Amino acid sequence: MSVDLSSTPRTLLVCERSSFQEEKNRVSTQVEQLRFNYKVSLLLPECNSLPSQLESVLDSFTSFYLIKQLPVYELLDKDFLETAVYQGNVYGLSYKTRIDEDNCVALLPNGRLCLSLDKDSFEVLGFEGKPSKFNHRTKSRFVISVDLTDRRMAPGGRGYQRLLTGLKSRLQLQTDFLLSHHPGGGASLQSLLSRCDWSEHRPQMSQRGLTELSCPAVHSCDPHSLLEWLGAVDADVTCENSSSSFLSTLACPEPKTTLSRALSVSVCGLLLPQDIQRLIDQLRCYLQQPRLESWVSLTVHGFADSPVSWGENEHGFLKGGENFYTLLMFHNHTYRLHLATGAHDACPP
Amino acid sequence: MVRVKSRYLLCEVNVSDRSHLLLLDDRSVGAAVKDAVARTHGDYGAALCSVRFCVKYLNAHTGIVFLRFPKRCYKLLWSALPFITSVEMRGQKIPCFLNCLHVGGTIRTCQKFLIRYNTQQLHRMLPKCKNEEEKQQVRRSILNCSQAWGNKEELEGEGESGEDEEE
Amino acid sequence: MKHLDQEEESGVYQRAVLKNASPYHYMKVRLVLEDETSRLSAVELKQFILTGLKTLHGEVGAAINFDLLKYDEDTLTALLRVYSSGLVKLWSSLTLLGSYQNQDCAFRVHQVSPFLLALTGNSRDLQLD
């Protein structure tokens, strides 16, 4: 038994620095690999109102659908597979299920279906899977990952039949489900939506103007202080504390300057990596215009309860389930990228 | 076989007036330690201190105490010892402090250390003796120590159990 | 990270992985009181948490530095920042704090993360309907 009270579960922070013009930069793959994005927040220094090009990109984010009480076997429906899964990228994630308590389902854009099940449900379902990496000793959670585009999983195939009967007759798994499709949108999902109780949702945008903001030297600030400062701005926490204050001693990292104003914009919902990629491209255009401050920051939070984080790496919750990245872009096409994960996660790409 | 591991702390109780030492008993020392742990480490420390903590040995003449702590938390409990400033005995509060001399894994290694330590102390006493009679007495005790020790070591060889020492 | 700073202007690809390097942990907690109308000020809340630390971890525990970054008096929700080494002690004493001025209370820990940014984007808060 260990009584070391000062240790905490492991966390990872990957820091990258490069230029968009550098061949080896992998920003677009990294953006694409984080499939289920919950929130995008932007910090635009020395900016009064949202520039129209950015606003139009944010407004054009793909809407997503919430299906109430979706029986999971519907995802294996032949029509749905043919019109949506084989034809493009479907993003699907169970809603209001907690990865550390409930059964979670995710449909990845590459046609993979991921089920993260507790031991009981896994045994009732009777389909091949692996014990979760994060509690392999107790084997209390199992992960099933099948490739729906595989020949074995094509409608009529043996694996397909087994999973279908399992989900239909043995484990009647029902869950609220978030669904989105790229590039088809709602039209490609019609075959599934027509049979369910669904509603359409737009990503929700909110803006907040900030004035007299102290700001660290973003080029050279150490990563943890930088993320702390960005978090403080986002959470609306004041950095103006004296070092002798009883309540809080949080301060902006030195050396600091003062921004007369800044704009913080955030969008929430099930957001697609393709939309975020478009936003990044637009931000780079925005940076090319002459202005007082020559940087912008973009933070993308992933869903904490998604069974996968980056790529197909298994994701767990433990005490935070955080998976997010922050991209800091500069005028001269260079960028700083910080990818962070919590304890139950593999290293980001 | 796995045994329950402990750490034995060999401490010396320092008081201003040596006659007070004779009043010491193991219960009062134990209570003082528990008190200090509860003050510095709160309920958590007090709870750790309630399992398998005991005063194994107390020599009221020299003020030597053996404290037994569970191995997994002895560092935390040890850190509270400097905060002991007095021991309450029979309604009397005696100012004192504990000086830790040695940490061992078994009572045996602590005993070995204690004998060596006492010999050293006797050696130091030797030049301070006032008359020949005292000197003779001290010499005799030193001899006793080394004899008792020497015989033992010959019998057991140099199989000193390194595993019991500090890791 | 020193060598990274020197070449900040060049676009050379650099990658560093920091493991367990976060100096702080951040917690989002809410105090639930039996009498829902009573209110605490920020100073009272911090003092209350300190007494909890002192009971469970003694004077050593009470010496842990933590910051009350943000506090909303209406919902009794607070953002705390604590050195990573003190997280377990703070968390455990929050768990065991059971009464405030003779009324039952409890701390609900909503989110814990080594990054303050993560606390601003909790997908469990997503409300549709």
What gross morphology of chain C would you assign?
globular
State the CATH class of the largest domain in chain B: Alpha Beta
> Strand order of the main beta sheet of chain C, please?
3-4-2-6-5
Order of helices and strands of chain C: HEEHEEHEE
Determine the fraction of residues in helical runs of chain C and give it as a percent range. 25-40%
Span from first to last CA of chain C? 46 Å
Shape-level CATH architecture of the largest domain in chain B: 2-Layer Sandwich
The structural domain count of chain B equals: 2
* Poorly predicted runs of chain B: 153-167
Shape call of chain B: globular
What is the CA-based Rg of chain C, rounded? 18 Å
As a whole number of angstroms, the C-alpha radius of gyration of chain B is 18 Å
Estimate what percentage of residues of chain B fall within beta strands: 15-25%
Distance between the termini of chain B: 20 Å
- Biggest beta-sheet profile of chain C: 5 strands, antiparallel
**Class derived from helix and strand content of chain C:** alpha+beta
Output the CATH topology of the largest domain in chain B: Alpha-Beta Plaits
- The CATH homologous superfamily of one domain in chain C is termed Ribonuclease P, Pop5 subunit
Average per-residue pLDDT of chain C, rounded, comes to 89
Fold blueprint:
The complex is a heterotrimer of chains A (349), B (167) and C (129).
Chain A: E1 12-19, H1 27-33, E2 37-45, H2 52-59, E3 64-71, H3 78-85, E4 89-94, E5 104-107, E6 112-118, H4 119-125, E7 130-131, E8 141-147, H5 158-170, E9 174-182, H6 186-193, E10 197-201, E11 204-216, H7 223-234, E12 256-271, H8 273-288, E13 295-302, E14 323-330, E15 334-341
Antiparallel strand pairs in A: 1-15, 2-12, 2-13, 3-9, 3-10, 4-5, 4-9, 5-6, 6-8, 7-8, 11-12, 13-14, 14-15
Chain B: E1 6-15, H1 26-50, E2 54-59, E3 64-70, H2 74-78, E4 86-89, E5 92-104, H3 107-125, H4 132-156
Antiparallel strand pairs in B: 1-3, 1-5, 2-3, 4-5
Helix pairs in contact in B: 3-4
Chain C: H1 2-6, E1 14-19, E2 24-33, H2 42-62, E3 66-72, E4 77-83, H3 87-96, E5 99-100, E6 103-113
Antiparallel strand pairs in C: 2-4, 2-6, 3-4, 5-6
Helix pairs in contact in C: 2-3
InterPro entries (chain A): RNase_P_Rpp40
GO cellular component, one term (chain A): multimeric ribonuclease P complex
GO molecular function, one term (chain A): ribonuclease MRP activity
